[in-house]
Amino acid sequence: MTASPTVRSELLRQRSRSARLFLLPMILALAVVAGWPLLRTIYFSFTDASLTNIDAAKWVGFKNYLSWIQLKSGRTIYSGLLVDPAWWNAVWNTVRFSVISVALEAVFGMIIALVLNAEFKGRGIVRAAILIPWAIPTIVSARMWGWMMNDQFGILNDLFMRVGLIDHPIAWTASSDTAMIAVLIVDVWKTTPFMALLILAGLQMIPGDIYEAARIDGVHPVKQFFRITLPLVKPALMVAIIFRLLDAMRIFDLIYVLTPNSAQTKTMSVLARENLIDFDKFAYGSAQSTLLFLVIALMTMLAIWIGRVKLDGGER
Amino acid sequence: MTTIRMQDLRKSFGTFDVIKGVDLEIEPGEFMVFVGPSGCGKSTLLRLVAGLEDITSGTLAFDEKIVNSLTPSQRGIAMVFQSYALYPHMTVYDNMAFGLKLAKGSADDVKRRVHKAAEMLQITDYLDRLPKQLSGGQRQRVAIGRAIVRDPKVFLFDEPLSNLDAALRVATRLEIAKLHAKMHETTMIYVTHDQVEAMTLADRICVLRDGNVEQVGTPLELYEKPQSIFVAGFIGSPKMNFLTEQFADAYKTDILGVRPEHLEIKDKDGLWKGKLLLAENLGSESFLYIDIGAKEPLVVRQDGSAHQQPGELLCVAPVNNNIHRFDQSGRPAAN
Amino acid sequence: MPMSIIKNTAFYALVAVIVVCAVFPFYYAIITSFRTGSAIFTIEYWPTSFSVANYVNVIASGSFARNLLNSIIVSACVVTLSLLMAVTAAFALSRVRFRGRSLLLLTILSVSMFPQIAVLAGLFEVIRLLGLYNTLGGLVFSYMIFTLPFTVWVLTTFMRDLPVEIEEAAIVDGATPWVIITRVFLPLMWPALVTTGLLAFIAAWNEFLFALTFTSSTETRTVPVTIALFTGSSAHEVPWGIVMAASVIVTVPLVVLVLIFQRKIISGLTAGGVKG
């Protein structure tokens, strides 16, 4: 019997062999469906590809992003995505939409979460009720609200006029003043429940005796919210906000259906798809997709860094 | 009948050494207990024997056959876990039969062996139940049953009693002792941090400390001839008193150890004198804490309940000079 | 104690506002769907008429029934395929130590954040190359991009919490990793599988961008696309009654499922969210 060198045991070999085998289908699937298409999109953004003739794409460098011609007169004319007002309009719309919708959802979500965190009769009904907007497909909710916001026959105008909020019917989705508001209303209605549930999960992790201690100390409920609840629920709230922000940045279907032709609500995703498929500016659309990807990738990295998402937990 | 031989066995997790070179031979059919404070490496050592952890270096042999790289089932071990680790979705019968079925045993054979083990542990009535329908003690029996049916060469226990309440723990301890008597051909290793379990169950005890073997011996050897202050302090309850300075000087040693049960109260002319700080009455016995001017109060055990009052001045002396002498390094002092 | 009565009233008023806001649009869609002809164009807050004509119309006419079937097929296939791949992958990711595990988890997490539009161009090419354009297979294929990372992630967090000792007991019993997954873990995981599967099903059922882009004929569309493209020749000719009937048909099964599994869904959502 001599001292043996470090040999990996049969058990460990078996496990790592199986692990490789188990991961292979998923990794392959993700590579084909996500990795490769992403690389191709980025590649197309540097070519002159068109929808009808993708195979004949030729490399054109940064032309889709920015190019310039010097005229004889000495004037330089810039063209490309980075000087395209339509693109910057879409960027502005996306940012505006994301920030406002997520802020509203955070506030309303917090209110609903606080209500659901209280003990009262009928709590189950409320929880079931707020799950309904979440369960309804986005397209359906866009259609439902589109009907309710109809300028002539919509119930929303009728309701607001009865209450006295407005004095004449509004063409919510068609008017350039209200298109963004219409989109915001529907998005907030649809996604606040998700926010509320995430915040509620955070609230329920706060130990009850903290509140008991606060009550014994006679802390005013408002002060209690800002001094105890908010700081303790902040991590969950931040995660929810970051999630929703990333999600809001890529919004497509709601706007495509609710306000299809409004320049006030055209976001990066809507514009990119328009160029890719409808306008046969495949390469240009790819460049827009690539930029949107870059923005979201940066935000994701930031979010992961901020949230320090725990990735390596567990025993083995 | 399996001999287990460890030679310079080491285990590290990254740069952290948990087992730092263990040499140990366990006799065929022996009941060996690994004992030590938490973090001493006793569970890791058991898991090395089981094959659940990879051995970093050194050899582990069952009957001269090196088993370092074999899987647990290839080694022919069975193990009882601290949390029982029963499969929650399987009946008691299926829990016990699972391993046999995987080993492709014939249906008749599986049935026969499960029933035999169930009878031995008196759980035949529960065979159709799910683990959640059983009490803690019954679950523990099933866990033991699951190990028995496999007819293991080596039987491993990882703190099997620590999830049971005090009364059940004593009863199950007795069961395990009986089991060992019945399965006297099976080598058993038992891990615990409880020295009472170690003393009552073991043929031999292996005291571990910081990944090293501190002492191996029968329970009595460990009690009577501890080879270090650590073992002396770990075995025996309450813990041995350790005295230094003038108290030790009188015995010409650095550290003087006296067990509470080896001290008695004298009417007068005791060796040490001091005020009684506290008397703990357990009915059958009592413990007196006496301030004799040492760093810590001296603990004295006496039969029956204590009649002394706190504040009383008492004289104490070791019985029959039953003392342990240690040098500065914590080893027994040479004469 | 008038103060507490005021407080209570205010609280229940708030509760009522929340419930009404949440439920009213769906309620209104349902009552609209039961009204036909010119009745639709009078504003009513309460159900005044009950006619199933819109439902008969939507099912009988056009390709709606076919599209509904498409949605069911696509969603079911997507859920089955992603759960199959995710269960084994989750075992490897939660239970086996290997180099690059954190990096792999990070990659999977970032894929779930991918804006779908970013892969649209490349995916369009791949789908055409594979001959999957305008087929249900193409949709199943492309939907993997969002269901797979999600299911892998949720099942990984779930499997991580399964007791180590049960797995070790199985190892001692001689179980291989495959046996551990199929005969020990899967029976313990069915609640997680139901939840994850349901959430993936809902995501696939609701998907719009890929369904719109990778299909071209009415026979291969899924219901969200059909509903989105129900338009008349002008805005005033939108067949609102039919649109609402179709919407209700598409939504009711989801709402029923969600209400049945609401506890599990809430825990699944927050597992994917808070930890993800």
TrEMBL record, chain C:
Domain of life: Bacteria
Any one Gene Ontology cellular component term annotated for this protein: plasma membrane
Listed transmembrane segments: 12-31, 72-91, 103-124, 136-155, 184-205, 240-261
Subcellular localization: Cell membrane
Membrane keyword on record: yes
Keyword annotations: Cell membrane, Membrane, Transmembrane, Transmembrane helix, Transport
Family: Belongs to the binding-protein-dependent transport system permease family.
Name of the protein: Trehalose/maltose transport system permease protein
